[in-house]
Structures are given as structure tokens and as C-alpha cells.
Amino acid sequence: MQIIPVASGKGGVGKSLLSANLAIALGQAGKKVILADLDLGASNLHLVIGQTQARASLGTFLTGGTEFEDIITPTDYANVSFIPGDAEIPGLTALKTAQKSALIKNFKKLDCDYLIIDLGAGTHLTILDLFLLSPQGIVITAPTVTATLNGYLFLKNAVFRMLNATFKKGSKAANYMAKLRKDPSAMQRIYIPKLIESIRMIDLDSASKIAERLREFRPRLIMNMIDEPKDADKALRIKRSCQQYLGVNIESLGIIYKDSLQDRALASRLPVTVYKPNAVISQAIYRIAEKIIQSETLSFSGGSDTFDIANEEATDDFSAKLSYLEDLIGTGALSMGELTETIKSQAYELEELRKENLLLKSKLVKAANQGFKI
Q1: Confidence of residue 318 (pLDDT cuts 50, 70, 90)
Q2: CA dihedral in degrees (278, 279, 281, 287; nearest 10)?
Q3: For residue range 244-267, what is the model confidence (pLDDT) as tens digits?
Q4: Strand 114-119 relative to strand 251-257: parallel, antiparallel, unpaired?
Q5: Which pLDDT value is given to residue 299?
Q6: Quick count: other Cβ atoms within 10 Å of Cβ 195?
Q7: Quick one: which of 15, 112, 306, 315 could link to 32 by a disulfide (CB 3.0–4.6 Å)?
Q8: Which pLDDT score is estimated for 326?
Q9: 3-state DSSP call for residue 314?
Q10: Is the CA virtual torsion 221, 1, 283, 127 positive or negative?
Q11: How far apart are CA 36 and CA 72, in angstroms?
């Protein structure tokens, strides 16, 4: 069984969209898939796949009301089963250690080809621990400044969580990390490769263990909600930051264009790959599923060529998207009103991005002025 945790540094970047449709695409390819909604406190994955809210869920299991086997439910899609989350039981976003251990134990006993875990957004310790169940978890992000930054920060937090979990309590490495944590500014400036070298000087065994874990850690990135081919380049920023500051190589699984068709599919209570399998967004998800199937041996190329491939896919999909739009206008399937709404929506998003950039510039100027005064 391959565990595929799907995470994001912030909400609203399409994590549930990807998880649900990826499960269906893998199921259509003949793979046995279990899709789990771990966005505890905000569980809505059942809506994406058109399921009704189940009585038995992760919430009832974690609170002792249901056996784990009883919360695995069939779906209308070939080879896909579903484990519903629970948004109505208070406190589930912060699992107790015993609850988390029980959950992980049962996950590892599941009989399937793929377990896809739709995690909550952010960097809560529970989310990080579940993401680290696999060396090849997926981080999905978007091309906005905040989304790319949060995507990188999620991976940074995952690496630090890995460090803390690897070093034994009371070891010289653990004590060294404890001292560093007392100075938050120093923690922000840490280069993980240099940190490991410093630890190697005082605790060779711990340094060797974390170096090995980092070599095995090869998360995969998806850039979602792009508008044009050059947006795919923004994934390279995350790649470079991960290599330079974290000593981690990441792989690109590809890109997905923004498409209002997803909203129509959701309103119809159908995954977009079922609602319109030939759409550009659906084909991108099928392409990602194929890459995952091809990498079942967990081989890793180092990531360089995968980002080049993603850029080529962005160009090809953009051409397909324009052609599709021309067909819709030509046949009358897309009204002038709908086209106007699309343009208005894009204009609004551009204005929000402009404001976001201005805010970031003002913060940089302020930080530079403060540094100059010092």
C-alpha cells in the first residue's frame, strides 16, 4: 500500500478537489483506493464526491463510538472507498497522542493499493505527523505570493518536525535543538544542511540518522489554479528554497489550470473528472494519477526534469484551454454573460494580487528601514 497524504500551507488551494478526483482517477485505472477525510473540524470531502454525511465517521471512531472497520464506506465510483471525517465533534482538530496512534495503526492495516489522506490546511503537529507517514506526500499550492510562501513553510515545518522526532530525548542533538529553540530569530535563519554539520560534530549517530531520513524524504508538488503558462515557474521558487535552506529535493507532479467548471461540478455533487472527463482540469488530474502509478517503486529522479515537464504541460494545457473556450463561444454553449463574468472574476483576482504585492513590498521596505537603523 502506498500512503499519499495531501497537504497545503493554506486553505482554498484545491486540496480536497485533488484528493477526491485523484482517488477516482486511480480507481478507474484499476487500483484499489481508500480516500480519507482528515480535515478534522472542517470536513467536507463527502460533498466533493457526492456522498451524504455518514453517521459513522472518524469522529465517532476517535471518540470510541464506532469500530474503525465500520467507518469505511463504499462509493459510487469503481474501486474507491471512503472514510468520512467529522466537523461536528468539538476538539477533533487537536488529537490526543493515543487517538493519533490508534488512527495511524489502523491506517497501516488497510488493504488497498493507495490510501489518499486529505489533510487539514496549516502546520498543526497532527497534520505534520500524518504527512510524514509517507516520504512522498503531496503539497498542493497556487501561484499567489502567500500560497507559494505557505507551501514552502509547510515543508520547512515538516522537516523540523522530522528533526525533533528523529533525535532521542536527552541526546546531544536534542539538547542542541532545545537551545536553538530559545532564540526564534536564530531558528528562522537556520540552513538545515549547516545544522546537520554542526550536529555531526557533537552527535555523529543522530546526524547520520537525520541525514538518511532527509535523503528518503522526497515530497511532491502540484501547482494548482494557474492562469497562464508562466505561473508554473513559481513552483521553481519552492524547489530552490527547499534545496538551499532545507537540503530537500522535491518533485513536481504537474500543474492544474483554474477552471470555473469545478464549481459547476461541485454544484452537481459530482467530481469534475466524472462531470466532464475531457476537460483540461480533468485531463491534468488523470496525468497526475498516471505519474503516481508509474512511480509505485518509489524511485526518485531528483526533481529537475519533472519541473521542466510541468512547464511543458502548462504550455500544452493553455493551448487546449484556449481552443476549448473558442469552441464554447462558437457553438453558443458559453454565453456572452458567462464570458463577461469570467473576465470580471479574473480582473478581481488580478486586483487582489496587486494589493497582495503592494502589502509585501511595504513590509520589505519597513524591514529594510529597520535594518538600516540598526
Answers
A1: confident
A2: 20
A3: 999 999 999 999 999 888 888 988
A4: unpaired
A5: 46
A6: 21
A7: 112
A8: 58
A9: helix
A10: negative
A11: 9
Residues 59/85, Cβ–Cβ less than 8 Å: yes
- Cα–Cα distance, 366 to 372 (Å, whole number): 10
Asked whether the CA dihedral 272, 274, 276, 281 is positive or negative, the reply is: positive
Residue appearing with cell numbers 537525520: 210
Does 178 score more than 60 pLDDT?
A: yes
How does pLDDT run across 34-75, given as a tens digit for each residue? 999 998 777 889 989 988 877 888 988 988 889 999 999 999
Dist CA 108 CA 117 (whole Å): 12
Q: Read off the C-alpha cell for 281.
A: 482540469
73-74/80-83 β-pairing: antiparallel
Q: Name residues whose C-beta falls within 8 Å of residue 51's C-beta, 6 or more positions apart in sequence.
A: 73, 75, 82, 84
Helices (H) and strands (E) in the chain, counts: 16, 8
Which pLDDT does position 319 carry in this prediction?
77
Mean predicted confidence (pLDDT) in 311-334:
69
Q: How far apart are CA 300 and CA 214, in angstroms?
A: 13
**pTM of model > 0.85:** no
Instruction: Report how far apart, in Å, the C-alpha atoms of 312 and of each of 186, 255, 307, 315, 319 are.
Output: 39, 10, 9, 5, 11
